[in-house]
Automatic annotation (TrEMBL):
SUPFAM superfamilies noted in UniProt: UDP-Glycosyltransferase/glycogen phosphorylase
Record keyword Transferase present: yes
Top-level taxon of the source organism: Bacteria
Keywords from the named record: Glycosyltransferase, Transferase
Name of the protein in its database record: Glycosyltransferase
Cross-referenced InterPro entries: GlycoTrans_28_N, UDP-glycosyltransferase, UDP_glucos_trans, UDPGT_MGT-like
All residue ranges annotated as the Glycosyltransferase family 28 N-terminal domain in the record: 5-82
Similarity comment: Belongs to the UDP-glycosyltransferase family.
Organism encoding this protein: Staphylococcus nepalensis
Leader sequence segment: none
Length: 406
């Protein structure tokens, strides 16, 4: 048995894949102290870990200080969160012993904390993985899409923040790659090998693509209100970038006379009065038990968040992607490239185009489902993502710790 420091103060998309992992770690005898955003304490309460919280409002204020409208500013925002996250964890763990740490690949300051605490580390990757080489290529491409003056300003800010962090905490921040990706001694990605971009370029000793980390859903009774005698079509823009009344209204108008049962998750920031008339073949809810619903879903109209995409592939559900922000455009491109779905733009789609696309995809479901099976067939293990992740984590533990430590 070892004691793990788990640091993951990111959004739901970063937390959700780790829930099953933490449960499995505890089940196998590990002791876990999990630092998370104070928004997700309840979500993690049944994992068996000791949950400690970090202040969401302060972290988000620091993270969004530069408005984050391009990746250079996102990275500078991440550097600003160091002064919120690192001192608190160092102070609260000062008299504790941990054997190793697991940290989110983006929001954890994990690369810095591993240095300060002198701990071997595992990076928890909730989206596409990057090596230093692939990330640098990506960054170089971005320089052609961002104004030169903005890049210069972001570069100068990065150097100031980097120097502050290095001098304040006596650590090394080699480059933007370490700030954005927080590489560990090993990196656990909840992406299927067949879905990861350029999978064959990653060293299998360093990167473990375990696939979706999803617990078997409980039967909640939600499906009792859905007519499953006809195709079920699920519509969701996720939990973060979902305030798009125009898109939902397009769906209501375009799909009202299609013989299918539509389920729409609108989140808690949208209200029913924000929308036009809701047709009788639509069920609209602020919360939907997504993995339970996907087991009965024929087609998923999605924002292409990585968690939702993973869950859809796990359930063999083709996707019509409407990316909103963050990594979603890249995920949507991969969905289309692999022919497991299609993508459209919420900004310029018309109701007529939407209706025809949905009808075309319903007619071609076996084609998309077969391609999903091809993506899944690249996995070399029949274990669930969280079981495989914990296998790798415990193998890592045994390799890096002496028997006396565990």
């Amino acid at each position: 048995m070892a004691k793990i420091l788990f640091v993951n103060p990111g959004s739901a998309g970063h937390v959700n894949p780790t829930i099953a992992v933490v449960k499995e770690l505890v089940k196998r005898g590990e002791e876990v102290v999990y630092y998370a955003s104070d928004l997700y304490k309840d979500k993690l309460s049944e994992t068996g870990a000791e949950i400690r919280t970090l202040p969401t409002e302060a972290m988000m204020s620091a993270f969004t200080h530069h408005e984050n409208h391009h990746l250079f500013n996102v990275i500078n925002g991440l550097l600003r969160t160091v002064d919120i996250i690192v001192p608190r964890i160092l102070r609260e763990t000062k008299n504790e012993h941990f054997d190793y740490m697991i940290h989110d690949s983006m929001f954890s300051c994990g690369y810095i904390l591993a240095q300060k605490l002198n701990l071997p580390s595992v990076s928890s990757v909730s989206s596409f993985a990057h090596t230093k080489s692939t990330f640098d290529t990506f960054i170089n491409h971005l320089t052609s899409t961002v104004n030169a003056e903005e890049i210069q300003q972001a570069d100068e800010t990065f150097e100031v923040l980097k120097n502050h962090v290095e001098s304040t905490y006596n650590v090394i921040v080699p480059s933007r790659f370490e700030v954005m990706n927080n590489p560990g001694n090993i990196n656990i990605a909840y992406v299927m090998k067949g879905f990861q971009i350029n999978y064959d370029t990653f060293d299998p000793n360093d990167y473990k693509f375990v696939g979706p980390s999803v617990l078997k859903p409980n039967v909640s009774g939600f499906m009792d209100q859905i007519d499953t005698t006809r195709p079920v079509i699920y519509i969701s823009l996720g939990t973060v970038f979902n305030q798009n009344a125009t898109f939902f209204n397009h769906c209501f108008k375009a799909l009202a006379d299609i013989d299918a049962s539509f389920v729409v998750s609108i989140g808690y920031r949208n209200q029913l009065e924000d929308f036009d008339m809701i047709p009788s073949n639509f069920t609209v809810a602020q919360y939907v038990p997504q993995t339970e619903l996907l087991q009965h879903t024929a087609l998923f109209l999605t924002h292409a968040g990585m968690n939702s995409t993973n869950e859809a592939m796990l359930m063999d559900v083709p996707m019509l992607a409407f990316p909103q922000s963050a990594d979603q455009p890249v995920v949507a491109q991969q969905i289309e490239k692999l022919n497991i779905g299609r993508q459209l733009n919420t900004e310029d789609i018309t109701p007529e185009q939407l209706k025809q696309t949905v009808l075309d995809m319903l007619a071609a479901l076996p084609y998309y489902q077969q391609n999903i099976k091809k993506v899944k067939s690249v996995q070399s293990s029949d274990k669930t993502g969280y079981q495989l992740a914990v296998d790798h984590i415990l193998n890592f533990r045994d390799q890096h710790l002496t028997q006396s430590n565990i």
